Amino acid sequence: MRLIDIIKTANHNLFQNKIRTFLTILAIFIGSFTIVLNTAINTGVNSFIDKQIESIGGDGFVEVFPAAMYEQINSAMQSGTAATEYNSDTGAAASSRITDSDLAKLKAVQGVKDLKIFHVLSPEWITSDQTKQQYNVSLEYLPTENFNVDLSAGRMPDNNSDQKEILLTEDYLEPLGFATAEDAIGRTVTIGFKQTALCYTKPSDCISTVKATITGVQAPGILAMSGELHINYALDDAIYTKSMEGVPAETAAQSNIIAVGNVNPDQLSQIRDDFEKLGFSILTIDDTVGMIRTFLNVVLIVFTIFGAIALLAASIGIINTLFMSVQERTREIGLMKALGMGSGKIFLLFSLEAALLGFWGSVFGIAVSVVAGIIGNGVAHSTFLADFPTFSLAEFTPLNVIIITLTIMLVAFVSGTLPALKAARKNPIDALRYE
């Protein structure tokens, strides 16, 4: 009997008992559906992250903070760990800020292009001449020279300019009275913030203001998700300097805990080592995204484990189905052996029946998961992913589908080996006598 004939016979034999075969395939379907859909979501999420990181650039962008501060944060995040002895050299009371001397040393490291203190600004509101309303706002200085930010209109703020410049997001256009993104370019906004020292003596009258020119409007994207409006360093420095007016220099310097800037990406590894020798740690975009990616992967792996458990249960079903099939077809096995069919081909016949159970279960699981993925993508794009039309929540790739199908068929094949061995070892005479 040729291999193709054995495959046809195995497929035909499966459906002699339709209900039992259907229930076994259904168990495999549940496992394959779970695994395929989770793999597709994993692929879709990681693909979107990769595209966004590639599109925004940021190669060489670094955040620098004291190693002592990192140790404190890391210790706080590791709940349930054993108590560790306090070290005055690395504790929070040690060097947990970046001094002017530290900044000079960091800037002197080979490969560092630019480095500035990151000021944590707390503005009260933003408004414009086009409206009487004031709106909550969050501002952030970003060294944007190597970032590819999607713009609806205009340009990025110039960090080398003495002019105070700001980049709006589309969410602020209508509230601030601008009809379109183009209409906002060149207009002025007013930002209100508290003067820290003055608020101690005149808490009801300590708001100071600064005006800034709108240079561009940011389109929806991964950078816009943070909610901050990006400003140039001139505006950042103006707000920080005015808000800290009257505050003792030593006290004001306590907030200098992070520096941001650009370095040569080809020298990043060496720069990281040099910074660590100076007592500072580096965080890059890849580091941040890597943590997010790891978290998402862990969540999806947990769901994939549920699919694997379903497949394990299906494997037990395959063994049961084939054992019953061998028992019911004992005389048929004896007849096949009497007609000259060898034990090897009989083993192959029953093993292929198991593999075909895996094949049909995975095919149905893939088909339903693809339909669910298409529907899910459509619903997501019309609701919570409306601002990200290029984000496919579930992304199916032929390679992943083929690998999952072959893996499930292999699991099913292995599950069917024991019943297949039992069939292959049957004595033809005893099998023919079986009632």
Concise synopsis of the structure shown:
The chain is of the alpha+beta class. It is 53% helix and 14% strand. The chain has helices at residues 3-14, 18-56, 67-77, 100-107, 181-184, 196-201, 233-243, 249-253, 268-277, 285-328, 330-338, 343-382, 398-415, 417-424, 428-433; strands at residues 61-66, 112-117, 123-128, 139-141, 151-154, 165-169, 188-194, 207-218, 229-231, 259-263, 280-284.
Large-scale geometry:
elongated
Give the rounded overall mean pLDDT. 83
Helix/strand-derived category reads alpha+beta
Mind telling me the C-alpha Rg? 33 Å
How far is the first residue's CA from the last residue's CA? Answer: 27 Å
Q: Please write the string of helix (H) and strand (E) elements.
A: HHEHHEEEEEHEHEEHHEHEHHHHHH
Number of continuous helical runs:
15
Task: Kindly state the number of beta strands.
Answer: 11
- Uncertain runs: none
Major β-sheet annotation: 7 strands, mixed
Total domain modules: 2
Share of helix among residues?
40-55%
Indicate the multimeric state: single chain
**β-strand amount:** 5-15%
Description:
By secondary structure, the chain is α+β, with helices and mostly antiparallel strands. The protein folds into two domains: 3-54 and 291-433, no CATH class; 59-65 and 97-284, no CATH class. 53% of the residues lie in helices and 14% in strands. It is built from 15 helices and eleven strands. Strands 3, 4, 5, 6, 7, 8 and 9 form a seven-stranded mixed β-sheet that branches. Strands 2-10-1-11 form a four-stranded antiparallel β-sheet. Helix 2 (18-56) packs across helix 12 (343-382) and helix 12 packs antiparallel against helix 14. It is elongated, with a radius of gyration of 33 Å. It starts with a helix and ends with a helix. 30% of the residues are buried. The mean pLDDT is 83.
